Amino acid sequence: MNFGSKFFGLFGMVTAAPTIKHEQMIEVDLPKEHIVASVAEDREATCWGCGLRLLLPSGGPVFKCGWCGAITNRSAQKQEDKSLKWRWLRDRGFVCVLLVFILFVICGGVWAVYPVVFSINQFCGIFHSTVTLVFAVSTLSSFTLTAFRSPGAPPNVLWGSYPAVEKGDLENYTFCHYCLKPKSPRTHHCRSCGMCVLDMDHHCPFIGNCVGAGNHKHFILFLISAIVSTIYVSIMAVYSVLHMWPPLSIHEFVHLNGSGSMLGWNLLKDIIHAVLSSTTLLSIRGFTLIYLFISSFSVQIGLIVLLCQQLWYIYEGKTYLSHLSSQGDDGEKDCRNLLRFFGCPSVSFYWHLPIFRRSKKRHEK
Q1: Which terminus of the chain faces fewer neighbouring Cβ atoms within 10 Å, N or C?
Q2: For this UniProt entry, which segments traverse the membrane (predicted)?
Q3: What is the rounded distance in angstroms from the CA atom of residue 214 to the CA atom of residue 360?
């Protein structure tokens, strides 16, 4: 390999130190021994992407190859993640807790509600059982796909050899010092999963997996299915517990006295006392329904907030991590990003609508 093929100039991330010309030094009214010229010293480095040796100005730890486009950080070193095992155990614990909760909501809800719905008529009982089965299957299947499917590994690319790596093949690629392989600009390394993830949104400990290009759609479907299921559980729990709640004692409200605000306060206290007194007569099914309502209602609030956040990032054509790295950049908001994300085939039809005609950017996976 001759000198011209061994060395390539770089003009990306490294700038040479300024030099003082000879004519400028003559104009300085100082003794010659005090005149110092700043001279840029060339240093040789090797690009990890194509293997070519490069001439660099001094003082530049990060540089970009002028041939393949790879970005090299000379100050970075090989990293060893010693806590990967503990994070794996933590995530598996969260997954087990979430699975137990989902199964409890399904089984406990069916056990606590079926006497009420079947007491109305047989059709209501069959309808409730069918709806419960559909929600249970959709939630568990989407959860399984999200938790156990690969979040999306970056594509394998040729690197390290000049004849094989052509010009611009590794544009803006960096080197992952955990996986010891190239990392594309849309890829992030997850220390909990121990792998690089393409279009990584975030790492979710409750599914024990990252959310990336490979399972992002399943994660959104899991959120939608879980929200609809918890709303249905809340409605059925309230309906059933009202049917089996013991009647309130009417004599509690007979001896009310006072006027104005005092009367209202006394009435409120008597109602609360009567409700609490009647709870002692509730069966185990009644207490199970109360717990199901409180837990499902609190969970659905958090899931709704998370779903709205996710859909907004998709609408902007971003992920959560790209949103954090582009503070101040609102991006190109595009309703077609949502359609492409869910694989809607009729994008050309929606293009004729005014709300879709204004947008240009797409959410690419």
Answers
A1: N
A2: 93-114, 126-148, 219-242, 289-315
A3: 24
